[in-house]
């Protein structure tokens, strides 16, 4: 089954064949990225199965996993930082699909991430985050919209930096 973001967007495919094909391919890749993010340790060469082209599988393995050694064997691991990288790619692709504004709450639920984690990633990408009521009719939680605006907002320095103690 597909994630809710993809299911909603499939209902809105454009009529123009070229645009329709492009959007469908983007949605397929976004769905594949989200499914890939669910994995932890990868032992198979092609973890996404036969329906995923090998070139895509290899790219996912190369970009989003790190090699680890466990009991003398090599494994590919998707660490927390790699999951954040996947989330950033998913957000960027969703922004591309939805004309630079996307519902971060739907993506967060699809990726099974905590809201604070998703907001940190969105802020690191310099998105303007605003509140919106549930756009897609999914329960009545407050949804967060991420919008890519130019010029990019200046990144605020975190105010909770502790001063380092000088050692004598």
From TrEMBL:
The keyword Nucleus applies. The keyword Ion transport does not apply. InterPro entries: RNA_pol-assoc_fac_A49-like (IPR009668). GO terms for biological process: DNA-templated transcription. GO terms for cellular component: DNA-directed RNA polymerase complex; nucleolus. It comes from the Eukaryota. It is found in: Nucleus, Nucleolus. Keywords: DNA-directed RNA polymerase, Nucleus, Transcription. GO terms for molecular function: DNA binding. It holds the Pfam family RNA_pol_I_A49. Belongs to the eukaryotic RPA49/POLR1E RNA polymerase subunit family. This is RPA49 polymerase. It comes from Podargus strigoides (Tawny frogmouth). The gene is Polr1e.
